[in-house]
Amino acid sequence: MIPQRKTKTITVGGLRLGGDAPIAVQSMAATPTRDAQATLGQVRILEAAGADLIRLAVDSERDVEGLRLVRSESQSVLSVDLQEGYRLATLVAPLVDKLRYNPGHLHHHERNKPVRDKVAFLAETAAEHDCALRVGINAGSIAPEYSERFGSDRVGAIAACAVDHCAILDELGFERFVVSIKDSDPKLVVEANVRFAEACPQVPVHLGVTEAGLPPDGIIKTRIAFEQLLARGIGDTLRVSLTLPFDEKGREIEVGRELLADIEAGRFRSVPPSFFDGLNIIACPSCSRVENEKFVELAEEVRRATAHAAEHDLTIAVMGCRVNGPGETDDADLGLWCGPRHVNLKRGTESLGAFSYEETVPRMLAELEELLRARTGA
Fold first, then answer.
1. Strand order through the sheet with 280-283
2. How far apart are alpha carbons 76 and 97 in whole angstroms?
3. Closest Cα partner for 147 from 185, 104, 116, 183?
4. How far apart are CA 37 and CA 66, in angstroms?
5. CA–CA distance from 254 to each of 51, 81, 258, 315 (Å)?
6. CA 63, CA 66: separation in Å to the nearest integer?
7. If the chain, 378 residues long, is cut into consecutive pieces of 10 residues, what is the mean pLDDT of each piece?
8. How many Cα atoms occupy the beta-carbon half-sphere of 328 within 13 Å?
9. Residue closest to 312 by CA, chosen among 378, 372, 271
10. Least crowded by CB within 10 Å, which of 21, 59, 291, 349?
């Protein structure tokens, strides 16, 4: 039930992606890369689960040192998320097989330098060290110029950003790249990836619903997007981004392979029209940007504490880091983004302050009740 894909085939280390290559299943370590032993433990969990590719994050030279130890102990295909420190690529590229950059994050550093020059630096560094690139676009951190151009058309904004970065890499003569377009809303993920694939059918695509959340809802949201896209021949590699305890990260690989097997065999799951009605809890997957593992417990507590509001059309976002947290909670009715010791609570784009992990849920519930009263008139 997965038609032949039209994308070109590239190599990432010893892994073939795109074209007639098998669809690769990957995941990301949940620990700070500077904690080399903990990160190596994550890599071992994902290797045991059969991950085709493992992604880590690097945000400092301390993270680079941790990565160096992981590389010396593992033969896995490794990808690194450069987060906002794109110039760390020169230190990272000799140690990995792929570099991932976010166009929205490129905007914020060296603002007087054209984006094309920053991409050229990354492409030259990747080529010098035999690395592939991933252009990773998140709807929650889109570069301001696209928001200004497209206004409320988020699908148009993120698809255009992807097309523009492909054009830059093509002009630079760099061919070994993959594009990912992600959001927490599977409908937007489908629409944006379909639009991008129509514009750039040869470019390999990585699929994911970012911040899909806790199982089983997170699995269902991901399945919706994957069924719609893979059945169209869109998707060369994928990740199921679930909010899980760190020692259960291998489940992302297991679920990814289960979804692939189901779709390949034509075992689709129907979704009722009302599936997206009611309370929507968005929670990011645990990754190496997380500064306190308690955010997983917090997400579970939020789900339990808000069960009484299940029929109300509200969105609550629980984010595990300060990199994506501030921007990706803007569209939620209530947003929680977590730091090492405190949780930042938001109502829409308005900051309500920082609270301890113990204080957060009662404070959030007070805001929730206020929202419910305003909506019901009670």
1. 280-283, 315-319, 334-338, 342-347, 350-356
2. 9
3. 104
4. 8
5. 9, 22, 6, 28
6. 5
7. 93 97 97 96 98 96 96 97 89 98 86 93 98 94 90 94 98 98 94 97 97 91 95 97 94 97 90 82 83 89 94 93 82 93 94 95 96 83
8. 28
9. 372
10. 349
User: Using CA atoms, how far apart are residues 137 and 182, in angstroms rounded to an integer?
Assistant: 6
Rounded distance between C-alpha atoms, residue 8 and residue 178, angstroms: 10
Question: Would you say 219 and 198 are in contact if contact means Cβ atoms under 8 Å apart?
Answer: no
Contact between 129 and 71 under an 8 Å Cβ cutoff? The reply is no
Q: What is the chain's length? A: 378
Residue 216, preceding peptide bond in cis (omega within 30° of 0): yes
Going by C-alpha positions, the residue among 214, 165, 235, 224 that lies closest to residue 318 is: 214
Strand partners, 355: 343
- Retrieve residue 156's tokens: 């148009």
Closest CA relative to residue 32, chosen from 103, 100, 81, 102: 81
Residues 6 or more apart whose Cβ sits within 8 Å of residue 80: 55, 56, 57, 58, 67, 92, 95, 96, 98, 99, 100
CATH numbers and ranges of domains, the chain: 10-264 (3.20.20.20), 280-376 (3.30.413.10)
At residue 347, the 3 state secondary structure works out as strand
User: What secondary structure does DSSP assign to 267-323, as a single string?
Assistant: ------TTTT-S-EEEEPPP-TT-S-THHHHHHHHHHHHTGGGTTS--EEEEE--TT
Report the alpha-carbon angle 281-286-287, nearest 5.
Answer: 135
| Contact predicate 182/138, CB 8 Å | yes
H/E element holding 49? helix 36-49
Amino acid at 267: R
CA proximity to 101, closest of 84, 120, 78: 84
pLDDT of residue 83: 74
pTM for this entry: 0.85
Distance CA 280, CA 306 (A): 10
Sign of torsion over alpha carbons 279, 319, 135, 44 = negative
